[in-house]
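SAMPLE LOG
Freezer: B-3
Tube label: C17
Construct: single chain, 243 aa
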Amino acid sequence: MKIIRAKDYYDMSRKAANIISAQVIMKPNAVLGLATGGTPVGTYKQLIEWYNKGDIDFSSVTTINLDEYRGLPRDHEQSYWYFMHENFFNFVNVQEENIFVPDGANPDSEAACKAYDQVIHKAGGIDLQLLGIGTDGHIGFNEPGSAFELETHCVDLTDETIKSNQRFFGEGEEVPKQAYTMGIKTIMQARKVLMVANGEDKAEILKKAFEGPVTPAVQASILQMHPDFTLVADEAALSLLDL
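STRUCTURE (predicted):
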């Protein structure tokens, strides 16, 4: 496990983008596992900036996203397909046919999950997986539980998550209660894993995840066992770790 200290969010984003760009430069046809959420947005902005300068080329890259809400079509403003296009794909030259996100519009969860596992297998696995971390230690939509789920699966969102998401949806619009997510086994099979974290609210969970026991009650703790895991975090997020 490697920990890279950043001064602030901008510095964290730049350092994380450096690692991703190095992966693409070393392997132009790299398979990148990508994440949504507020934390990685700065990393995507930095990669876009370098792309615009001609420093990085995504034309041969394949992207495989962690998760998607079940029941949302791709063009819904709250879908992760939409999020990724608005924050990254629309601004770089990743080929549309090389972009993969779980099919949230498919109501058959077993078929949707099986199809996504086949996508990952056909791509040859993930070279670098980007992750954030929830304040309860979840990665992707792998929430605290009694086991580490293996491959792509359908999860029931917690009441807290559903309530939190309500603000993103219109009045009377149903908030998704389930999501399709990459499993822990798939994440752990990525050749490199990169996590970004910032802010004081992540300090306690980082300590639990990386200085506590490996337990499915803190899903991110399994990353202690990954052979090539890097955490890039700002000083506030790292404040409780015994570095």
